[in-house]
Amino acid sequence: MEITTGKSIELIEKAQAIRYQVFTVEQSIPNELDFDGLDCVAEHVLVTETNQAVATARLVINADGSSVMARVAVLEAYRGRGIAPLLLIS
Predict the structure, then answer these.
(1) What are the C-alpha distances in Å from 50 to residues 19, 54, 82?
(2) Are 48 and 4 in contact (CB under 8 A)?
(3) Domains plus CATH for the chain?
(4) 3-state class of 57 per DSSP?
(5) 6-29 per-position pLDDT tens digit
(6) According to the model, what pLDDT value does residue 86 have?
(7) Highest mean pLDDT range out of 20-24, 66-70, 81-85?
(8) From CA 6, how far away is CA 44, in angstroms rounded?
(9) Which run of H or E residues covers position 62?
(10) Do 74 and 45 meet the contact criterion of CB atoms below 8 Å apart?
(11) What are the residue ranges of helices labelled H in the chain?
(12) Distance between CA atoms of 38 and 53, rounded to whole angstroms?
């Protein structure tokens, strides 16, 4: 597994694809609740396995220095393998 962090458009698009599958398709959460306009200012974490993006999380750092880790999503086929904790320690 490879862990990548950053703010590139390519990374954000891969993260959004995972979130769409997990939140919108599987959990029936409306797109507008997930895609809140903060992706462009957030730091993203992406886990890939064999060139397949399988998990993501997003860190937003607020003006007061506090931060929020959210949008943690792991594709169904990869759940139960201990991937989510890797997102949080990256």
Answers:
(1) 19, 10, 17
(2) yes
(3) 2-89 (3.40.630.30)
(4) strand
(5) 999 999 999 999 999 999 999 999
(6) 84
(7) 20-24
(8) 5
(9) none
(10) no
(11) 9-19, 31-34, 83-89
(12) 20
